UniProtKB/TrEMBL annotation:
<feature type="domain" description="ABC transporter">
    <location>
        <begin position="24"/>
        <end position="243"/>
    </location>
</feature>
<dbReference type="GO" id="GO:0016020">
    <property type="term" value="C:membrane"/>
</dbReference>
<dbReference type="GO" id="GO:0140359">
    <property type="term" value="F:ABC-type transporter activity"/>
</dbReference>
<dbReference type="InterPro" id="IPR027417">
    <property type="entry name" value="P-loop_NTPase"/>
</dbReference>
<dbReference type="Pfam" id="PF00005">
    <property type="entry name" value="ABC_tran"/>
</dbReference>
<keyword id="KW-0547">Nucleotide-binding</keyword>
<dbReference type="GO" id="GO:0016887">
    <property type="term" value="F:ATP hydrolysis activity"/>
</dbReference>
<keyword id="KW-0813">Transport</keyword>
<dbReference type="InterPro" id="IPR003439">
    <property type="entry name" value="ABC_transporter-like_ATP-bd"/>
</dbReference>
<keyword id="KW-0067">ATP-binding</keyword>
<dbReference type="InterPro" id="IPR015860">
    <property type="entry name" value="ABC_transpr_TagH-like"/>
</dbReference>
<comment type="similarity">
    <text>Belongs to the ABC transporter superfamily.</text>
</comment>
<dbReference type="GO" id="GO:0005524">
    <property type="term" value="F:ATP binding"/>
</dbReference>
<dbReference type="InterPro" id="IPR050683">
    <property type="entry name" value="Bact_Polysacc_Export_ATP-bd"/>
</dbReference>
<dbReference type="InterPro" id="IPR003593">
    <property type="entry name" value="AAA+_ATPase"/>
</dbReference>
<dbReference type="InterPro" id="IPR017871">
    <property type="entry name" value="ABC_transporter-like_CS"/>
</dbReference>
<protein>
    <submittedName>
        <fullName>Teichoic acid ABC transporter ATP-binding protein</fullName>
    </submittedName>
</protein>
Length: 245
């Protein structure tokens, strides 16, 4: 997997392009006259790296530094402004982007999520119990047969992680999934990430928890303001990042 001088720009429409103060914005809202400006956010600026099979790569950096954007771009969910991403197979992003339907039960979402990732109905049937057990959703009652909207955000995140972790991935990307569960779930996740890594895929992990990064990653990319500050062995990069904070 290669990212070559990758630039990602968001275009936010109807912002008034930052012109006018708060009063102007308020008047626009009250008069329901849409603003016509476009504001550009240059979220990833010329990032290049090569990831090999078997590598487990952490992404660190302060809030808004471009970690989630970079993962989405590598997963093919955001178009590149310039530069390019080359991948073997389809990268899958665990976390925010997994398609989950709030009005459907957890059960139905396990099936839909599995199908969306390219699993067959037979595979889903075989792995269903494992997915539900892994998520820990049933620990506090029979939640799997209730609609997802009755789940806490942590429960929903755990179920998303469990569905995606049931499949072997070429390139697996996890955005802050480890931070959401309790200690037992984090332990299961870390163990599963290690297994997935051994199955020779490439793993990307975004986390605010430097311990998770240290425990699961062999290499770390440090982003700030959309630029790659450092790329190297985990301990070297995390230590530099901690010293910088
Ligand atoms: N959908 C979006 N539209 C416009 N700007 C966005 C969007 N998503 C993120 N951004 C901006 O892009 C930058 C990088 O955000 P993000 O990738 O979410 O950072 P991180 O994951 O490191 O916190 C930030 O300035 C953020 O405000
Ligand atoms: Mg993020």
């Amino acid at each position: 997997m290669i990212a070559d001088n990758l630039h990602i720009v968001y275009r936010v429409y109807g912002t008034g392009a930052g012109k006018g103060g708060a009063t102007a914005a308020l008047n626009r809202i009250i008069r329901r006259r849409p603003a016509t400006g476009v504001r550009e956010v240059h979220a990833v600026k010329g990032v290049s790296f090569t990831a090999c099979r078997g590598e487990s790569i952490g992404l660190i950096g302060s809030n808004g530094s471009g970690k989630s954007t970079l993962l989405k771009a590598v997963a093919g969910l955001l178009p590149a402004e310039s530069g390019k991403v080359y991948t073997h197979g389809q990268p899958s992003l665990l976390g925010v982007n997994a398609a989950m339907m709030n009005d459907l039960t957890g059960e139905k979402n396990v099936v839909l999520g599995g199908l969306a990732m390219g699993m067959s109905r037979e595979q889903i049937r075989e792995r269903y119990d494992g997915i539900v057990d892994f998520s820990g959703i049933q620990e506090k009652g029979d939640f799997i047969s209730l609609p997802m909207r009755t789940y806490s955000s942590g429960m929903a995140a755990r179920l998303r992680f469990s569905i995606a972790a049931a499949k072997d991935h070429d390139v697996l990307m996890i955005d802050e999934a480890l931070a959401t569960g309790d200690r037992a779930f984090q332990k299961r996740s870390e163990a599963r990430i290690r297994e997935l890594r051994q199955e020779a895929g490439t793993v990307f992990l975004v986390s605010h928890n430097n311990k998770s990064i240290r425990d699961t990653c062999t290499r770390v990319l440090w982003l700030e303001k959309g630029e790659l500050v450092m790329d190297g062995p985990t301990e070297e990069v995390v230590a530099a990042y901690e010293a910088h904070q």
